[in-house]
Design goal:
Layout (H helix, E strand, L loop, with lengths): L4 E5 L14 E5 L9 E5 L4 E7 L6 E7 L6 E7 L6 H21 L6 E7 L12 H16 L3 E2 L18 E6 L3
Parallel strand pairs: 6-7
Antiparallel strand pairs: 1-3, 2-3, 4-5, 5-6, 7-9, 8-9
Length: 179
């Protein structure tokens, strides 16, 4: 079986009635038709066994899926508050960490994989951040991801960017496929 995940952020959808998909999906409604909202699509072989929204504003969800091998995979689709909202961003990442920790403990005997993907709204490369506070947040977040055994799909030395101004990498895919 191939792992197929399509993660969308900023969908602005307040309900999932218009979604048509042959596989499985997780949906987080946006607070208003003008903000946030996330959808994560999976192939037909995937079964979602648990879903938790990260916050009440539509900034993503964490799901536990089965159907791809003998281990569950925790998939986190994030849409972080922008980095200029420093305190909101810190609280957001604390919530993400708490949900991941709870699910990793709950499924510890099955050694779950972990995928975190989406719009991080903070470059993890310290030199791409504008001030010391952002550099420190990036360093702390990078260290946290490393402690989870996550691998960044962006290779070292890869200078591609994901933000329209060409200044940073805000979109990421971090993964650990063995427990």
């Amino acid at each position: 079986n191939k792992l197929f995940i399509l993660a969308l952020q900023e969908t602005y959808l307040v309900n999932d009635q218009s979604l048509k998909w042959t596989g499985t999906y997780a949906f987080t409604k946006s607070e208003t038709p003008h903000s946030a909202g996330c959808i994560t699509y999976f192939s037909e072989v995937v079964k979602i066994i648990e879903q938790r929204d990260i916050d009440e504003k539509g900034h993503g969800h964490v799901v536990v899926v089965e159907g791809l091998g003998d281990r569950p995979i925790i998939v986190c689709n994030i849409y972080s508050p922008v980095r200029s909202l420093a305190s909101e961003q810190e609280v957001y990442y604390e919530r993400v960490g708490k949900v991941i920790e709870e699910l990793e403990i709950k499924y510890i005997n099955r050694e779950p994989g972990l995928i975190i993907l989406g719009d991080f709204n903070l470059p993890l490369e310290q030199n791409m951040n504008k001030n010391i506070a952002e550099q420190n947040r990036a360093q702390n977040l990078s260290e946290y991801f490393a402690s989870l055994g996550l691998i960044d799909c962006w290779k070292k030395g890869d200078d591609r960017i994901t933000h329209r101004t060409g200044e940073s990498r805000l979109d990421r895919i971090m993964f650990r496929l063995s427990g």
